[in-house]
């Protein structure tokens, strides 16, 4: 909107990206690089979820199914028909976007409250999980399958596989954030702020609220689907456990709530904190679930607004 | 006088009970028409039907010769019909400037540039008398200021007609006078037709060209304010039967 | 006629689901808290009763201890961690309640799965099987069905005829109206949370009686109970019970004829389609 | 429902402005809002029984039931009908009757005539007059000025939050300023 805002946004995004880009120089071990990649993957999925839940209050509880259906479609097509993965990933991405747009359409057409959209999408998540296990001849059920290698061109030989993936994800992140920022500073950004504030008033003032919501669900889910596919190819082994409610949806939800809904930096910080926490908690085995449960309760009892809005309020810094 | 807005036998039921029944009306270009009636008469429901918040069970709404029945509020707004609400709903977490710009950007029939929208917003905030508070966040406003802000937001969309749902409630006599001057000015300077629900009778009776009276969802009477004030049916609806 | 035992199994299973789901229905109807930890209360009671039963405590006393433990724990939860949700209004309350209980569900699940890992628990009666007209019935199953049915009937009588029951229905239908009658809604909510979690506990014990209960099934129980509650109409107790029996029977039949995963998918679709096409539920009225 | 920002409400010289709504009912203030707030999917008799929920009211349930059935014979005829299926006028009667079941010392009626046809309004005020004969204090907020004032001992005219006129019902009835306040002429 105004020049200052634009510069402020650019600086903050630049700082974040530079820090992220330097991390592989500090953490070079194979395990550390894997964790760094997971960090970026979850961050991108959280940004996608933020577009849907954070900006338009549509409670989707099927991030895992969106990411997973994208991966299963593209991975299986690539594996079974020998198609170049880069050619089928867009198909998976579009599928995820289409599914989300469909749910969003139903929600606005039937005027579903958040809780009912949540349950509908949760049903879809669980149907997806059951289908993957049920269609074992195609999906390999719990055993899963090994997708073909995704070629990253000269990057791989230059940096090694993990680093190549990492910088590919950094590029995707930069593109995402730049688009995100310009959208937020455009009329659509204003419409999003208005909708978050008061849907009925937005409609009366002339905003096509339905269209904005469906579009955001489509865009957010495309990002989730695209990242979800990269997650599977990066993991080099695809099993339902990657995309389960407990292993993906809940973590993404916690990352977003902790970081702060409807902020640009929130998903980045949230993904960072909980990727580290996840690694610390890993040795606990089944108790990890307990720990996540407790964290979720604490977040919603004491910390509903999220860390970025909280810092913003305390320090008056113009965080985005 | 050309007719700008027309309602034909508008009817709406809530759970089997009629809220608005067979209401016909015509509003001419440039008029100020008051819509009055006791609580529960169906005034707000009628407004909701006109601008598309509710779909009528029967009847049509014609706006500038076009049938707009069943169109969504955002489309109706772009066609040139703005609206303010009984309980004002500005965007509480946005600045006053952004609030009014939202009207200019999204409510306008034509696409307008941001800089132009900002210019309009400044002007409208001045018109309603909030020009010293551009960067204040709307949740810090008093109820009266919120009403003004909502009016500015509605005006910013460059409407042909504006539906105002109670503007004067809670004002002291001096403020009522000021508000009346504001409405006059809006009509004169911006050529906006005004369809206006109001409980402060003094204001309606002085300002409106015509008054429509609703009671129990039915149109009870229609005419010049002086005629309405003498109409025994109206008096009975307001004050109860057996009036002196 | 091999279908009859399957159908009877289905009815018993459905009654157990109803027992779980009426708690969800009542708690949501009164305070707009969708209890996403509900199934874990069934696990707590079921496992407690089975463990006590395993060390030769009388089955009846084991069950009683299990049910009371679930109820008391529910009461504590209602009076502590849910307070922040009750303070909020509208959509914020619904979302907070949903996520706080989701967190609680995970916490309980993590704890139970860790503490009582990979073991099936069951509550046993001293009789084995009964043969009737050439068909084999398990009496435990019939006892579980009977107890569930009697409990549900008692609950409906309580709601229909006692002052307390009428007060519950009044708060569900119109909280302001209830206050005008001198009814304290938060007190009613507290008692119903206690009763609801006890009913969940009873459902867990019945499952331990008719088959087995594992700490792992908590999440599934919660989800199935929510689906039953939604298909029944979220605020209608009668609808919930009807939906429970219906879905239980269909689930058993589909599992038997095709497979469990298709039956589960059917269950989930039933919820999604109800929300989209008939949000007021099967019977379409409140309480 | 809404607690006052300043000032106190005194009942039998107790300050009750800080109590929650259900406590006020327990203390003997019965509020009958314009929205009526009935239980639509319960029968008339169930609605009335719930009015007698508090311990104090439960003791006198039978005699109060008799009283409201005497005042509102139509409710007695329809005691097994669901409240939500009744007409507006009947619902208003039920709301008032339920208010009386709480055994109040003061009965507050907020715009009881809202949405009622003129014939019903007349009937309503007839009942209100009868209620006052039962030795019950009634506080009435009403748009239908003439009828309200004709049953009232005292009246107050509120304009934008301030009391602008007050006096006995008969005095106000003939005061031209009252009409002006309403109609603006």
Automatic annotation (TrEMBL), chain A:
UniProt xrefs under CDD domains: TM_PBP1_LivM_like (cd06581)
Entry keyword Ion transport: no
Localization, UniProt: Cell membrane
Primary site of residence: membrane
Top-level taxon: Archaea
Membrane topology designation: Multi-pass membrane protein
Annotated TM spans: 12-30, 36-53, 60-81, 87-108, 115-135, 164-183, 217-238, 250-277, 289-311
Entry keywords, A to Z: Cell membrane, Membrane, Transmembrane, Transmembrane helix
InterPro entries: ABC_transp_permease, LivM-like
Pfam families named among the record's database cross-references: BPD_transp_2 (PF02653)
Protein name: Branched-chain amino acid ABC transporter permease
Organism for this UniProt entry: Caldiarchaeum subterraneum
Lineage of source species: Archaea, Nitrososphaerota, Candidatus Caldarchaeales, Candidatus Caldarchaeaceae, Candidatus Caldarchaeum
TrEMBL record, chain B:
Superkingdom: Archaea
Keyword match Transport: yes
SMART domains cross-referenced by the UniProt entry: AAA
A single Gene Ontology CC term: plasma membrane
Protein name per its UniProtKB record: Probable branched-chain amino acid transport ATP-binding protein LivG
CDD domains on file: ABC_Mj1267_LivG_branched (cd03219)
Chain's role: Probable component of a branched-chain amino-acid transport system.
SUPFAM superfamilies (alphabetical): P-loop containing nucleoside triphosphate hydrolases
Gene Ontology MF: a single term: ATP binding
GO annotation terms (biological process): amino acid transport
Key words, A-Z: Amino-acid transport, ATP-binding, Nucleotide-binding, Transport
Domain ABC transporter: 5-241
Automatic annotation (TrEMBL), chain C:
Major localisation: membrane
One matching Pfam family: BPD_transp_2
GO terms of molecular function: transmembrane transporter activity
Keywords: Amino-acid transport, Cell membrane, Membrane, Transmembrane, Transmembrane helix, Transport
Signal sequence extent: none
GO biological process: amino acid transport
Membrane topology: Multi-pass membrane protein
Source taxon at top rank: Archaea
Transmembrane regions listed in the UniProt entry: 12-31, 60-82, 94-112, 142-159, 190-209, 221-247, 254-277
InterPro entries recorded: ABC_transp_permease, BCAA_transport_permease
One GO CC term on file: plasma membrane
Localization per record: Cell membrane
PANTHER family in the cross-refs: AMINO ACID ABC TRANSPORTER PERMEASE PROTEIN (PTHR11795:SF445), BRANCHED-CHAIN AMINO ACID TRANSPORT SYSTEM PERMEASE PROTEIN LIVH (PTHR11795)
Family to which the UniProt record says this protein belongs: Belongs to the binding-protein-dependent transport system permease family. LivHM subfamily.
Protein name, as recorded: Branched-chain amino acid ABC transporter permease
Organism, scientific name: Caldiarchaeum subterraneum
